[in-house]
Structures are given as C-alpha cells and as structure tokens.
Amino acid sequence: MTSAVETDESEGERRARATRVGLALATCFATCFVTGLLSHWIQHPPGWFAWPSTPVWLYRTTQGVHVLSGIAAIPLLLIKLGVVYRKLFERPLIGSPVRLIERLSIAVLVSASIFQLLTGLLNIAQWYPWRFFFTTTHHAMAYIVIGALLVHVAVKLPIIRVALGEAEPEQTVDDNGRRRPGGLDRRTVLLGAGGAVAVAVVAFAGQTVPALRRVAVFAPRSGAGPAGLPVNRTAEQAQVTVAATSDSYRLAVSGPAGDVSWDLAALRALPQHTESLPITCVEGWSADAVWSGVRLRDLVRAVGGTVGAPVRVISLERGPYAVSTVPSSHAADPRTLLALRLHGADLDIDHGFPVRLIAPNLPGVMQTKWVGRIEVS
C-alpha cells in the first residue's frame, strides 16, 4: 500500500532535494581532495612542486580546511543516503548499459566514500584498527572517490540540470490550515543539513581554530600536553628516551666540508634565535608556540653547505617518519630552527628533547623530533 509520504511527495521534489544535498556533498569532497592532495605533495613533492615557507599560517589553513570539509561531508552523506536510499534498490538493478554504469559508479562512490570518511575520522582520533598503512591507502582511495563522483555526475547531469530548475512546490494544507502529512519539504531538509554540518564542524574546529576550543567537544587534539601543546607520539612510543637523555648525545652535521658534532652545551652556546611559529599536524590540529634554538642555515654554513640546498634531518627514532627532507626554501629561511626551547623552557622529551626541527609552514610530521643527524646536500 502506498504511504502518505509517497503519495504527497512528488518524485521531482525528492530529486531536487537529493541534487542540492548532493552538490553540497560534492563541494566538500572536491575541497577535501584538493587540500589533501596539496598536503601529500608537501610531504612527497613531485619535481615540479614548490611549497613556500611563508605565510606561516598557510598549511595550518589548508589542512584545517581539509579535515573540516571531511567532517562536514559525514552528515551530508548520511542525509543524501537518507533521501535516495529507495532509488539505490530500485528495479531493474542493471538494465541498459548507461544504467549499469550509473549503478556501478554509485556502488563504488558510496562504499569508497564511507571508507574514506570513516578511516579519516579514526585517523583524527589516532585509532587504527586495521593492518594497512593509512596514509598510502587514504591517498589512493581519494582518487577512487573523485573518479566515481565524476562518473556519477556525468551520468546524472541531465537530471541535475532539471532538478536545479525545479521550484519548490507549495505545501498542501487541510481545511484547518494544517500541512497535510507528507515528506519533509526541501527547505526543512536543507536547513537541517546545514545545521548538522555546522554542529559537526564546530565540534571539531577547535583543534584548528583556537577561539573555538572550548566548544570543540569532539576535537581529540585541543591543547593538552607539555607546554600546552598536543603530543602525537611520545618518546616512550618512539623508544628514544635513553638515547635522547644520554650524556653522550651529539648532534652530528655532515656537509661538503666534512662532519661537525655538538653536544647539548655546545649547541646552547651557539647564537640563539626565537621565533613564534604554529605547529600543525596532518590530523588537523594546530597550536601557536614560541621556539628558541639555532638557525638551520647557520649549521649548514658550518659544514660548508650552500644556504638553500635541501637538507635531510634524521631522528634518533626509527621508522617511516625518522627522516624528513627540508625543502630549499625552508632551509634558507631564517625562521627554520633546530629548537632547544619551547615557551622559554627546555624542550620536554615528548616534544623532541634535546633538539627538534621547527620550520615555518610545514606539516608536523616533517618537524622531526629527537634530531640526531643532519645531512647537507
């Protein structure tokens, strides 16, 4: 028996609602894809790519937008599926070749989108209940989502054009002036979608926007940690506590003129500089901090290196993030430091004691902690 919703609500109205929510979702996906690709290129730069060291807030902004657009996509995807779920199981399941392409693109788009958003959300919380390497998989899956989205839009383009031009129907009322039973009108759905997106974004935005930290109830990186900065990976987790606190610690720097090493006292005796630089993690959190230490370019000169040459920074830690390459623009920037102090106090071991790299406008994953060696090209 046909329900009241199916009787009162026209197919055109359903289509118009689905189209508008779908456009918002596609916008979030496109924004998330572009900013995510940018972050990937910064960490694994193609030969043609160059990322500037200034302004210092640029990566903080792009990565914040990346995470928040992904968060915004979650309620939009749920609403979109709620609007169109009947169509997902509509007969015939295959039909014509065009319909087959459409069904396949929808299946890939829905499954890949759910996977991408769910794993991204768990990455923010640093919970990895899987065996695959998140970064590589997340990057590859992004192309699948965008590819399926483009195919879906291409197939649906004639319907999208019609749906965007359809006016919202007038509400039907009974003799008492009350709206007759039926589906939610378009305005209610869109306002509800906007409200859900706003709540989701605000609940997470505090890890990127300091002014919203008090209301960021779901932000896992809101400022807790030594010196008020979050810690993604502790010294205990990295298994560097003994090496980092040993009296035999030396920072070794190699370059064209040979090798030079400094112990902690010698590093502190070098000219010290202080810079106010935010630190931003790929999970989306960021925090302002005041760092003091030795300029990287001063150490490059000490071993006969050319200022602006790429520099490899190697941690006492072992693993996939033990080595980072400082781009030439950042190596030459006077704000790039081998930091010894944070907010006027010696670095906490979980922030990279005795020495950590801090460079403007780079992801936190490239700001190597527990630095043991520097190699100048």
From TrEMBL:
Aminoacyl-tRNA synthetase recorded as keyword: no
Keyword Transcription on entry: no
Keywords: Membrane, Transmembrane, Transmembrane helix
Membrane-spanning ranges: 21-43, 63-85, 106-128, 140-159, 188-206
Xref: InterPro entries: Mopterin_OxRdtase_euk (IPR008335), OxRdtase_Mopterin-bd_dom (IPR000572), OxRdtase_Mopterin-bd_sf (IPR036374)
Coiled-coil boundaries: none
Protein name from the UniProt record: Molybdopterin-dependent oxidoreductase
Protein source organism: Gordonia hankookensis
